[in-house]
Amino acid sequence: MYVFTLEPLLTQRKHIEDARQKELAAIQEQFNARTHALQELIGSRERCSAKLRRIGAEGARIAELRLYTEYFKRLSIEAYEMQQTLDRLEENLTAKRDEVVEAMKGRKILENLKEKGLQAYREKIRKQEMKSADETAISLFNRR
């Protein structure tokens, strides 16, 4: 029976890869949520801008214009900050993807070693069986 001596290491590498993939998924989920929030902020800012143009053209009161202007500024600042957060998350995503790829490579190397060891073991067993069969055939031939 074939026993891969590095099986505990392979198991550990699989756990590490799984953990890194879960971390990557969490960052990706956070990135997607922030992207959606940014799109909503941009939509709100565009609606506010359109409202500002409309009430400006209608000759609205200064207090109302100031209110919309301040709201527009706040939305712009929030959108900028959200974009900065997305940029940082994107860097984290790239780094985590690289970690996952490295973990996959480490696992794959060990799996390839295991497979080669298993093939060598099977070949050894096959040769032993062939040798045994040959010896049986020779002994039967010599008995005749």
Concise account of the structure shown:
By secondary structure, the protein is an all-alpha fold. The chain has helices spanning 7-58, 62-143. It is built from 2 helices and no strands.
Architecture overview:
The longest helix has 82 residues, at 62-143. This protein has two helices and no strands. It has one domain: Helix Hairpins (Orthogonal Bundle), CATH 1.10.287. The protein is rod-shaped. Helix 1 packs antiparallel against helix 2. The protein starts with 6 loop residues before the first helix and ends with a helix. With 144 residues, it is mainly α.
Please summarize the sheet with the most strands: none
CATH-scheme architecture: Orthogonal Bundle
The CATH class:
Mainly Alpha
The ordered string of helix (H) and strand (E) elements is HH
The averaged pLDDT comes out at 93
| CATH domain fold name | Helix Hairpins
SS class: mainly alpha
The helix fraction, in percent, is over 70%
Shape: rod-shaped
Oligomer: single chain
Number of strands: 0
Beta-strand proportion: under 5%
